[in-house]
Amino acid sequence: MSIGHTLLGLLESGPRHGYDLKRAFDEKFGHDRPLHYGQVYSTMSRLLKNGLVEVDGVEAGGGPERKRYAITEAGVTDVETWIRQPEKPEPYLQSTLYTKVVLALLTGRDAGDVLDTQRAEHLRLMRVLTDRKRHGDLSDQLICDHALFHLEADLRWLELTAARLVQLASEVRK
Amino acid sequence: MTPAGSLLVAQDLHKSYGPTPALDGAGFSIHPGEVVAVMGPSGSGKSTLLHCLAGIVTPDSGTIRYDGRELSAMSDAERSALRRTEFGFVFQFGQLVPELTCVENVALPLRLTGVKRKEAERRSLEWMERLEVADLGHKRPGEVSGGQGQRVAVARSLVTQPRVIFADEPTGALDSLNGERVMQLLTEAARSTNAAVVLVTHEARVAAYSDREIVVRDGKSRDMMLEHSV
Amino acid sequence: MSLLRDLALGARFALAGGREGWTRTLLTAVGVGLGVALLLGTTALPGALNARNARDNARNDYGASVDGGPAVDTLLIGRADTQFQGSDVRGRLLQPEGAKAPLPPGVSALPAPGTMVASPALRDLLASPEGKLLRDRLPYRITSTIAGRGLMGPHELAYYAGSDALKHRKDVTNDRAEVLRVNKFVNPSPGEKIDPVLALLIVIIFVVLLMPVGVFIAAAVRFGGDRRDRRLAALRLAGADRRMTRWMAAGEALAGAVVGVVVGALFFVIGRQYVGDITIAGLNVFPADLDPNPLLAVGVALAVPASAVAVTLFAMRSVVVEPLGVVRTSVPRRRRMWWRVLPPLAGLGLLVPLMGRGRDRGTFNQVQVIGGTVLLLIGVTALLPWLVEAVVRRLGGGPVGWQLAVRRLQLTSGSAARMVNGIAVAVAGAIALQMLFGAVEGDYVKASGEDTSRAQLMVPLGDSSPDRQAQEVSALKDVAGVTTVAALGSLDAGEKAKEPQHYLPVTVGTCTDLGQAATLPSCKDGDVFIATGGAWNPELATPPGSTLYLDPVNGGSVTQGAAVRWTVPANTREAVSRPDPMGQRRPGLMVTPGALPRGAKLPIHSTVFVSTAPGDTTAKERVLNLAARADPLTSARSLNDVQTSNRFAGVRKGLYIGAAAVLMLIGASLLVSMLEQLRERKKLLSALVAFGTRRTTLSWSVLCQTAVPVALGLALASLVGLGLGSVLLRMVGRSVTVDWVPAVSMVGIGAGVVLLVTALSLPPLWRLMRPEGLRTE
Predict the structure, then answer these.
(1) Where does the ABC transporter domain lie (chain B) (predicted)?
(2) CB distance A112–B209 less than 8 Å?
(3) Does residue C382 fall inside a structural domain?
């Protein structure tokens, strides 16, 4: 996830202080990992340097970092481009799991076991997400669904691999 | 092997259709109020396991105990009576009687146990309300959408307040949104009545509504939760 | 042109639609084929019956006897008809009187005494273990068989046996046994002109039998219609318009019907081979005689496919095939009543003017009769769907099985009504016919007056001496299975020895035997009674002490004039006569043997009434064997309660054969639709079983689903049938009396077919209710 683009996007609705930005980010996207303030600071100075944001004003007496940021024309264009561009499909854990499965087959261990354990682990996480979805609002649901669909995709790959273990074994052992 | 307090326990089930074994030493257990997913690739025997557990099919060997009673020792009539009163069923397709209105479909299990028509339909409407389909009462299954139809079917499975609900791919014919909603309503309703749910599915997102899963492969079952606790 | 293209396309679907398409076409073809076979059979039946009659005339010897004495071309014929195990055996004894004696048809040479020419069926029967008793009765050696042209049907039991005793019987004894002298076999009397009432009956029978066949064919054309509609929907998606789908459906039906005509012709040809083996109510025809009238056959071959197209187009009117499926609107268009009442009203309009026409033996306009009857019966098929819909809509409540059935009927009342239309028409027609039969029965069926509860056989002993008769009676008594015998002798008493002016019948028998003919106050041997009662007035006063001359003259023997003088004893008492087991009253003197003049060797004409043990089916045969041994020309026979006019029996047989065939046909179609419906809901049935539905619940629903429309159909059929029957009765000039027994029994038969269909569809239902149906993998 690009933190820079996310912060820019938050600024589009109006100028904010750095602290406000962090709070909004955490509230909406930072369920798992809240942002460090330093991260916000370094990101904002990079954006400032690139001319994507500008300082709208500084509040008096509130401390050294009470700067108010606003998005520039260039910044809006940048967000627009980022949103429109499709994300590059990423290999999540196939590489790791594949290595494990192949190693299991090679050493005569039960590869199905590796997959079953992985499925149980996936399902455990999926239950947590499903439960959160049940009690959350719409944005929670959408975010959890996204994670769930990705996990499900992993699981589908996993089931398919399980169905082809015999075939895979004969090829690996060649 | 048998956890204490189980409502429905099966051990070492064997069942063959012709020469091919559908179940080959499968086991199962479920507590009241628990939702257990039965997973596995198609043809692995998960539907057969459900049919055996529900007393629809008699296994060739093995034991199935429901609430302290041995299912294989019961007559066909006794098992039918058990299914009418203690169990509820949701299937993937073709389970609503096309000629009956939705509320009549929901009322059917109650009517089979001898509840008077008016009373049965009143109770059915309550359940249909909980499943958000009360306004479909007087339509026929052919006139409602797949998701609505499936909710009607879930209402029907709950109307007798069964202690075990058997659901065989209940969302198989639905899109994700409808499928999720049906699962949510089903599991909520089951939890509120402390009913156990045996959920056969091959979809992980549906299985995620369960408390634990059992994997069936080549007629054998694995209880992942038990293995982890060991 | 585009119509033809659509028709052809539809036909291609029917013939090349994969396994499912084929199954449907085959089902239709078999259904239509059964109907066509029956139609062909019906067109061939009159010809077959004519041929049969012609053969019967060709061998007829009644009324063929010639006056005058023996000649070189005369043949003596003795009638030796008998019965064996309920079947008639036509028997003739033949004795030629010259070299040119005629040959009966089908016989190549006259049999020598002691030998016979037998029909193939009789030969086989005699050769079989079942025929053992009959062998004793016909002790002739079989030299050859009677050819087909000398027989009524392939299963007729008949023989011609050679004899050398006929000449003596004819010229010397001249006893009661009929011996004829003929010089040719031909029926000299012109054929009876057919009675207009009987003609009406026959016309109605044909209409009543053919209507349900038409209805059945119409139903068969629609077999598997739901599945076809789904296929047509797919075609709509591919761009066909509504009119095109309609004609394609018609094309499919056309293909099924054309195949059906071929199948029907095949069924007919195959069935004809076996028709000789079937004997229904004694009627049995040769396969070769069952030859359809070519014009009618062509008509059938053209009319059936044409009506298949018409029926389909008509039916498709009410089905809206949309691209995404067949629209079954939640509230189907209600059927209107007004136009459905028109056909029966028009039918009545045609029939009512004919009322009273039959009283003075006037004839009926056949077109008008057929038109009126057909319209009335069509009225049943038009009104029934409306009635079913109207009633079913109001049904509710009740147990689950009932609810399932009612809801199903509410959705598909049309097809339900179609299924029972055939039965309804058949029952309506049959009820009308039964009423007509019942009313005119008195004209054609007579109660014979014979009382089979008192005796089962009568054996005439001829005119022989009391000693000889006593021997014969005791021989009869000794036959295994005989319980009682009662011999009653007949004499006449005149006021003088020769050429008396007045006669008094005299019945001779023991006290017990006389009890069969009169109620006696008390009796011992030597008593004499004068029996009164009945319509008869004695011609002679018989005060005790008066003198009479006993003479068996009326017995037909040659001992005329050998009268014996006899005085009416003083102790003669009065008794009340009662009908003897043959239904005849024997008023006059009742005399016990002890009261007859001592030593008088009067030949008395006696009849023995024989009772056999109930359940002993062969006792009768042994009695007849004994009688035949004493006299091959004996007229000993079983007693019957009723006697039927031959022609009437033929008409009724035709009705029974046809009604049986039609009901079987309709039963088969009901079964097919029921099975089809069950197969389509395999999955649903399994789901219902899963949540604990009892077999009985679903069985009830299947039963109710058939029974409700059938009950309505039968109710309407009874109404129309009784109406039609009343009109027909008025037409032949009878007062209208409703005989409930045939009406109820016809309704019962219709209901029986439903029960049978339900019973036959239960095993498949239960098989489909097995949990295996839930498996999708």
Answers:
(1) 8-228
(2) no
(3) yes
ipTM confidence score? 0.83
Which candidate from A134, A155, A163 shows the least CB-CB separation from B204? A155
Q: Is C160 helix (H, G, I), strand (E, B) or coil?
A: strand
Pair C387, C523 in one domain = no
CB atoms B84 and C328 under 8 Å? no
For an interface test with B, which of C774, C775, C777 has the most B Cβ atoms less than 10 Å from its Cβ?
A: C774
Q: Where are the domains of chain A?
A: 3-84, 94-172
Helix axes C695-731, C338-351, angle to 10 degrees: 40
Instruction: Compare all CA atoms of chain A with the CA of B177 and give the residue at the minimum distance.
Output: A145
Query: Residue B177: its chain A contacts at CB < 8 A?
Result: none
- Say whether both C479 and C624 belong to one domain: yes
pLDDT in tens, C80-134: 888 888 778 888 888 888 888 888 888 888 888 889 999 988 899 888 888 888 8
Domain of C514 in residue numbering reads as 457-640
> What spatial distance separates the first Cα and last Cα of chain C, rounded to whole Å?
47
**Is-contact C464 C607, C-beta < 8 A?**
no
From residue B41, give the alpha-carbon distance in Å to each of B45, B205, C10, C750: 9, 15, 42, 54
Q: What is the pLDDT of residues B1-50, one digit of tens each?
A: 455 678 999 999 999 888 888 899 899 999 999 999 999 888 888 888 99
Q: How far apart are CA C575 and CA C519, in angstroms?
A: 6
Strand arrangement, sheet containing B20-30: B20-30, B8-17, B61-66, B69-70
Q: Which of C376, C384, C379 is nearest to C728 (CA)?
A: C376
| Angle, helix C400-411 to helix C413-444, in steps of 10 degrees | 100
The answer to whether the Cβ–Cβ distance between A123 and B205 falls below 8 Å is: no
Residues 6+ apart with CB under 8 A from A13: none
Residue A127 Cα, gap to closest chain B Cα (Å): 5
